[in-house]
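Input record (one chain):
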Amino acid sequence: MLELVHGGLCGGILLALADPAGATEPKAQIDAGSTAWMLMSSAMVLLMVPGLALFYGGMVRRKNVLTTMLHSFVAMAIIGLQWVLIGYCLAFGKSIGGFIGWSPEYIAFNGISPTALYGDKHVPELVFAMFQGKFAIITPALIAGAVAERMSFRGYIAFIVLWSTFVYCPLAHWVWASGGWLFEKGVLDFAGGTVVHIASGVSALVLVMLIGNRRDYPDGAIMPNNLVLTLTGAGLLWFGWFGFNAGSAVAVESPVAGYAAVLAFTTTQTAAAAAALVWMILEWKHTGKPTSLGVASGIVAGLVAITPAAGHVTPMWAIVIGAGGSFFCFLAVQLKAKHRRDDSLDAFGVHGVGGMWGAIATGIFCFTPVAGLVHGGGLKQVGLQLLGVGVTVAFAFVMTLIIGSIVKAFVGLRVTDSQERDGLDITIHGERGYHL
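The corresponding structure, as predicted from the sequence alone:
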């Protein structure tokens, strides 16, 4: 005890000598462990994009496999640059009225020093920016699944640039940035239930309305070309989702971030496992056969549902959220045929519906940072979550309708009938995925 007192006294004397006014604040130090985890999480989230390419690529016909996979890969190039040049500035710059960010030094990262730390998180701002950039990349790639096998490649490129700039970035600012109006109201979205999944799912449905169904849907036989690819992609998505969710613990103030990461990691695993099992059982009962595509779909449905809640709920409630995600998404996929809307790879049915359920379930089951309905917190957080869902649905729907209509008028959204008949791989890219 004497040594501690003596050490504290000497430290105070030395500090006074160094700064007689006593006004110097200790400089924030980088947390090497958190930084390493953020770097790893960023790489894991980027791996989800090739995983998505495999997941989607296996479900389309052989003549369109390369184009479908390229939708994911080209997003890495285009949105990867868009995010550095202007996206991060709009999403996480200084808030203007709570609706958009703007900090000139963020343009092209020109004013961000490699040694600058992000807020009070003890990680470099560049690693935070890169982590968030991976979310920006995968979100428009999710939309492509709804319009696979018929969307113009030029139209897709024009659409994702405009959509990411005018839909994704504002939503990210509203929900995640300090000063964002939904953030300030207390809407919870741990890793992207609203910003990523609801936004992409609703926008996918709007694009289906603008582009129309495939030429042989629903009467023709449209069979997956390679479910081995789809299962492999689902496995990579499950792996990468640990970075997606557990990496988002950086949003929680230190030193709680480490605990939040562990909780998010656990709930992610639990929800995905429950959802895969529930989808398999539902399909087995409905069709008499448990399929690999059903299990893969269940995995993704559970991952989507737990995303907004991952660091806010206990593992027990994660089971309920994952199982509920599978049930609601399975129902949405079954209803698709009745409405004759060709959401080719169920982007709305899984991401839109799963994201809505997960966002609302967060308000029901959360225990941190506020108590949800089942923990005695009443309906307040449920109401806030419903607000977040409603605003995201309305904003994504209207903005996608506007952006999609502009692209349709000036660039074109759909390929020609002959291109669709012969396949987009050979007619657009001059390649074939398989030479068998």
